[in-house]
Design a protein that fits this description.
The chain is built from ten helices and two strands; from the N terminus they run αβααααβααααα. The protein has helices at about 1-10, 25-30, 40-45, 45-75, 80-85, 100-115, 130-140, 145, 155-160, 165-175; strands at about 15, 90. It is globular.
């Protein structure tokens, strides 16, 4: 019954991305005020610590922060991991004009499914390094990340992160063991 209830709630929570999202050109040209709301995944998905351990959790937090910044600055402040969590990571990207934002949103769903949760369930035990490698491998080769642009190493997001978001995400993924 619990799985049925969860599926019904997930279907009810299906949301589309916020309206009036900027195109990539507009997002690059227009400064975005403020910062995204803080998002520490272990606060919302505490069994992630059990599965991945404290060392990896710190890396996952840093990865999540970079992703949160990327979502926020590519969406003119409209999309962030807190919003995604509020809709249980169920949202569509059909009306998202920016390819980079669409890819970051897709990667966030992928990260939620495999790292924040164990395919929507709690982590029951500590994962071995082989199990962690098996979980992280698809993230390292994610089409969402490989399709992010390599250009625009300057700009508000790059200044905030200290480099290109694609490179930063890949570097964090390489550190998870």
């Amino acid at each position: 019954m619990n799985k049925l209830r969860r599926r019904v709630l997930e279907k009810l929570a299906q949301m589309s991305a916020p309206n009036n999202l900027p195109t990539e050109e507009a997002a690059k040209a227009k400064p975005v005020a403020g910062s995204p709301p803080d998002f520490a995944p272990e606060n919302f998905y505490p069994t992630m610590i059990r599965g991945f351990g404290f060392r990896n959790t710190n890396i996952i937090n840093s990865l999540s922060d970079a992703l949160n910044q990327g979502l926020y600055f590519n969406s003119d402040g409209k999309v962030n991991l807190s919003w995604m969590r509020s809709v249980n990571f169920n949202f569509g990207t059909d009306n998202v004009p920016s390819v980079d934002l669409k890819n970051l949103m897709g990667f966030a769903k992928q990260l939620h499914k495999s790292v924040y949760t164990n395919n929507g369930e709690d982590f029951k035990k500590a994962l071995t390094s082989e199990e962690i490698a098996k979980i992280v491998a698809p993230l390292k080769t994610s089409t969402f990340i490989s399709n992010l642009s390599n250009t625009n190493p300057v700009g508000q997001l790059s200044a905030k992160l200290g480099g290109n978001i694609k490179t930063i995400i890949n570097n964090y993924l390489l550190q998870i063991q």
